[in-house]
């Protein structure tokens, strides 16, 4: 394995009522983030907001659509102190209405200048959207970064999909 430098996985994951997988205790994206951290030796920062806690799927996606339409930037807890120490940043989340949840855009706006010259690799969990607009949105958010093509996996496949994540990371040199 070539030296890829220090890596970080930044992600948002939604537990609770999810499309196609029902009520889950650990969100699909968290599972993929854990696979990436284990395989690539990456640190993690989970974007946490309690805004969506306990919401059923339909009200959640309705709220997500309203947030996107209004350009809302919901707050999240904590933050990464020193992004400059990382060479590669994996950015992941579920696809809600064609892109990442708006809370991720809060992180993007706050750190818009912190990823210049970094390798940024988007990933998504979805139930049919693939990467949707996530790669383009990450390129817009971090114009000075080297944004890679990315990876997507069906949410209903993540619990048995570690091999898919391994193959993807192997293709990236991990």
How do the strands and helices of this protein lay out in sequence?
Blueprint: E1 7-11, E2 16-18, E3 22-24, H1 28-40, E4 43-46, H2 57-70, E5 88-94, H3 102-110, E6 119-126, H4 134-141, E7 146-147, E8 151-154, H5 162-171
Walk me through what this model shows.
With 174 residues, this protein is of the alpha/beta class. 31% of the residues lie in helices and 21% in strands. The strands form 2 sheets. Strands 1, 4, 5, 6, 7 and 8 form a 6-stranded parallel β-sheet that branches. The protein has a two-stranded antiparallel ribbon with strand order 2-3. Helix 1 crosses helix 5. The longest helix has 14 residues. It is globular.
């Amino acid at each position: 394995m070539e030296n890829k430098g220090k890596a970080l996985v930044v992600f948002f994951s939604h537990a609770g009522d999810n499309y196609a997988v029902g009520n889950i205790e650990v969100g699909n994206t968290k599972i993929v983030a854990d696979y990436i951290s284990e395989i690539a030796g990456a640190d993690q920062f989970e974007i946490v907001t309690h805004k969506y806690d306990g919401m059923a799927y339909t009200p959640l996606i309705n709220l997500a659509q309203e947030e996107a339409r209004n350009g809302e930037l919901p707050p999240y807890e904590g933050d990464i102190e020193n992004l400059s120490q990382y060479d590669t940043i994996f950015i992941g989340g579920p696809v809600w209405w064609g892109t990442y949840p708006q809370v991720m855009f809060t992180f993007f706006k706050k750190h818009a200048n912190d990823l210049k010259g970094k390798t940024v690799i988007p990933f998504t969990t979805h139930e049919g959207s693939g990467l949707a607009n996530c790669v383009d949105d990450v390129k817009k958010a971090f114009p000075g970064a080297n944004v890679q093509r990315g990876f997507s996996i069906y949410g209903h496949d993540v619990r048995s999909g570690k091999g898919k994540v391994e193959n993807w990371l192997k293709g990236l040199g991990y």
